[in-house]
Amino acid sequence: EVQLVESGGGLVQPGGSLRLSCVASGFTFNKHDMHWVRQTPGKGLEWVSTIGTGGATFYGNSVRGRFSVSRDDATNSLYLQMNSLRVEDAAVYYCARASYYYDSGDYYFWFDPWGQGTQVTVSS
Amino acid sequence: SSELTQDPAVSVALGQTVRITCQGDSLRNYYGSWYQQKAGQAPILVIYGKNKRPAGIPDRFSGSRSGNTAYLTITGAQAEDEADYYCNSRDTNGYIYYVFGSGTKVTVL
Q: What is the mean pLDDT of chain B?
């Protein structure tokens, strides 16, 4: 069974740091890009970051410069280091596997599966 | 613009058909994908590609696109289809990133 399990969420003060983890199982982890997506009640789903199989990283505008994504293919693990946390970073954070394919000049992509999520609360 | 616009809520009678729309410029270039999220659960993929369903997703779910609008259609809605539905696309705009729609709450009456 393909599965993603996040951990590391919790309560942190504004300006603090937190490191989220996501452990994958049931598929060849090192052959897939991986995403982080967060969800707040007010803003819905927001893409946070992507890391490629070769280690290339991409970030959303709201977290670039403060968050850092990494992976350890030896342990099938994905990480999100979150620094300088703000109240608006409070959300449920999900990891998700990336999939893509090309067909007749069109490019297709999707997020599947998703982990169960881990709650991050930023408050003093 | 990279934004994806969805109607906040729609309702459908049990067994009837509902179409959920998602509008955005990036959809002229990409088909995107659709996700279902039930209360207290993580999102799950329901449609990807031109109109592909992952294993386990009923064939009453279908997807299409026209111009800058993507559609998710539920033909013969069931009570268990009551959920939030999100569209997703991608836009490079000089930098690779992804965007999700604001979500549509589907209520089955």
A: 94
CB distance from B57 to chain A under 8 Å? no
| Cross-chain residue pair B96–A58, CB shorter than 8 Å | yes
Q: Residue B1: what pLDDT? A: 56
Q: Please spell the DSSP secondary structure of A64-118, one letter per residue.
A: TTTEEEEEETTTTEEEEEE-S--GGG-EEEEEEEEEEEEETTEEEEEEEEE---E
* Chain B residue closest in CA terms to A109: B32
Furthest-apart CA atoms within chain B: distance in Å: 45
Q: Which of B42, B54, B97 is opposite residue A47, by nearest beta carbon? A: B97
Is there a contact between A120 and A13 (Cβ–Cβ < 8 Å)?
A: no
Q: Quick: pLDDT tens for A62-104.
A: 999 999 999 999 999 999 999 999 999 999 999 999 999 888 8
